[in-house]
Amino acid sequence: MGLESAKKVPLSRITHSVRASQAVLQYGVGAMIDFPNQTLMTAAPEYWQEQVVQIHDERLEKVLRVDYFGLPGGQDDPHCREGISYTRFPEWYFCPKCRRFQPIHDWVSDYKESATQKRLNSDPDMVKFMQCPKCRQDLVVTRIIIACECGHIDDFPWVKWVHCKNMYGGAKPICAHPTLKFKTSASSTEGLEGLTVSCDFCDAKATLKGAFDKDALQELDQKYEGKYNFRCTGRHPWKHTKDKCAAYPKVLQRGSSSVYFPVTISSLVIPPYSSLLTKKIENSAAFFNCKNIIAEYKRNVPKDLLPTLIQSTIEKYAKDIAIEKGLAAEKVQPILERKWIVPSGEEENRTTSVRYRAEEYEALSGEMSMSADDYGDFLREETEISNYAIPYIKHISLIHKVREVQALVGFSRLKPVEASIGDDSSEYVVPIKQPNTNWYPAYEVRGEGIFIEFDESAILEWQKNSPEIQHRVDVLNDNYRKSFVGQLKPRKITAKFLLLHTISHALIKQLSFECGYSIASLKERLYCSEIADGKQMSGIFIYTASGDSEGTMGGLVRQGRSDTLPGIFKKAIEEAMTCSNDPVCSLSMGQGRDSLNLSACYSCSLIPETSCEEFNIFLDRGTIVGTYENRRMGFCSSRLYDATAWENINSARRTECSSHQSRNANFIIIDQGTDLSDSDYSEIWRDLREWAVEGKETELLSELENGYERFSHKEKPFRDCIFQISGDSEQYKCDLFWKKSKVALFTSDNQDCYLAAKGCDIQCYFCADNAVTIDDVFKSLKER
Question: How many CB atoms lie within 10 A of CB 729?
Fold first, then answer.
């Protein structure tokens, strides 16, 4: 069944513009947006499908059974100048001067009767000037609406309410010509009792007292035996349709967060779907024509004839695409077949399935690779895990490039529903498109990230030696079963999932401190399953993916290298030991939404919900660091509460670095840093001393500062020099480097860099070394 046709009126691009991400997510289909002079609701995608830029993710397209995704086009795109479409909702407005209160169609009728011809020509539908025709005052939209759990929404039943709740003489029948006015009490009365709605035609009058009471409309219907019928009207204003609905709606404020909960599905574009060859094919005109023809076949051709027609179409257009893009036809055809010929059983896949996530896991971990000259939207760097020596970590991958597609598939009202297409909870999810529409609105972002794979055997050993952990998991699962979402969508939470999720949050919070990213710009992706589910996974992917340039310049990947990530991991775990709400937080057996967190709150573990894959539930610091009652229960407890344990974290790294001593490696300057030739030695030594953190280091730098006059004729250094060592791809930093003298000075902050460099063909000094003296440094430097 198609949607009703509707007249389109252009809106100002200046006052009625939203970002593409907003149009798909928080202001998506069915959501209200407050523009400067009116409130509108985003219309169904069928009304604006010509105004999108087509993007692709083959895996997600197959699961959602669509041909492409639509990204709202920008104003600069000549094919998307009209933009997306909106509908007027709420429809009731009042004039703040004369207090008239009526639906927008009545205001438009009054406007057409009184407006001048010139004004009618410039604004025939009262879109540009939302003003009272009589008073010339800007109209004010109502703040109250009604909605039900089935996703229907409508204006508050003002006419029924004022007659049913008449203050003088009791309830009245609805009059023939209701003429409402909305007034605010001039007395000291506050709240809803001070807001009055009256009918000038029959003198009915009522306040809004009790309008927001639970089951207020249902109780009125029961009291008057259904005479006024306050049941849900079944309206979907965003697509101009009505359903049959027997529920009683809830009264809400227009701006309430419970009015709209978008249901989105996200997917990473991974090899081979991310290849440059695939991208070239998807950007061809012949591919666009092929896609439209196959879509037409799917709508009109019997299923038994469909495979043959699709195969012949693919063979024809593979040649056209090859000619258009200068490619070999034998390379094009397999990609088209992969896209439109679905192998047996694959149609049952879901984005929430282990199989779907396993494909991403294999790409991130390197189990599935691609040719080096065909990276496209996905670029992964292998690391040597022995350089990290972080306990319990099996593998680390640096993802330099990744593309994420976020598709809006539906929404819910009153309560959030975690669902994807085909879930049992779909009765509470309103699909945003018609069944025959072959696309979903979507938004794509590019970014980078760090993938960490944990040692499965270490996790199993922890679970075996900590039986109390299972008790905590059982409590959380019991809380989930009692929750609204848990009753709709049964699910079992494991100790491993709690651990991975909580560590992910701890790392995100610490990364925001270390590298300057806002927490909201970082996101997580959890990979947790057992062999019995089809694939054993124990990994987390922390990445940045946004529409602007933040996070796309390599900053996050840099934090994942061996000289920085061990320290970040150590600090993240140590920060999880304490919370400003302890001991209450540590001892909690249920807090947060529906008591779905244990030892986790906003002061320690929670992050912005847009960054969390589970919307800040299923968290427990106890799985990492234990609790006050049992410190040894946590996965990292042995490292935290053993005074010497953390000293061993970088032991393997230091052993690796010290191996440079015996090979007399070359010291290669990558960036010589800041030239201090114009600085006085007193300033140079003082700047270093102010950052000193150890006793010997402070003592040496103080001596250097006091004896600065001795260095007046010596060569001036460079500050924060970046270097490499021959045979080593890592980059290091020294605090001061004298290029002519070939001398490098390191503070305790760069101890690992000193260990790596001290076997090179230069003279290295470590400020915290008891053997280093001011005379050693002085004699090593050459004259200017």
Answer: 10
Name the β-bridge partners of 69: 55, 440
Q: Which residues partner with 198 through β-bridges?
A: 181, 205
Q: pTM of the predicted model, to two decimals?
A: 0.76
Give the residue from 742, 279, 360 showing the smallest Cα distance to 537: 360
41-65 tens-digit pLDDT: 999 999 988 888 889 998 898 888 8
Contact 719, 736 (CB under 8 A): yes
582 backbone dihedrals φ, ψ, rounded to 5°: -70, 150
Closest listed residue to residue 403, CA positions, set 757, 772, 18, 69: 69
Task: Report the half-sphere exposure of 655 (CA within 13 A, side-chain side).
Answer: 10
What is the C-alpha end-to-end distance of the chain, expressed in Å?
86
User: What residues does 145 pair with on adjacent strands?
Assistant: 155, 252
Core vs surface per residue 617-638: b (16+ CB within 10 A) or e: bbbbbbbbbbbeeeeebbbbbe
Residue with token string 């469909």: 306
- Cα distances from 756 to residues 112, 236, 653, 672, 759, in angstroms, run 81, 66, 9, 18, 7
Tens of pLDDT, residue by residue over 513-536, are 887 778 888 999 999 998 878 889
Contact 755, 658 (CB under 8 A): yes
Tokens of 397: 């991958």
Give the CA angle between residues 680, 686, 691 to the nearest 5°.
140
Q: State CA 184 to chain mean position distance.
A: 42
Q: Give the pLDDT confidence of 385-403 residue by residue, as tens digits.
A: 888 878 889 999 999 889 9
User: Residue 353, Cβ neighbours under 10 Å: how many?
Assistant: 15
Q: What is the DSSP letter of 691?
A: T
Sequence-separated (6 or more) residues with CB below 8 Å from residue 753: 563, 732, 733, 734, 746
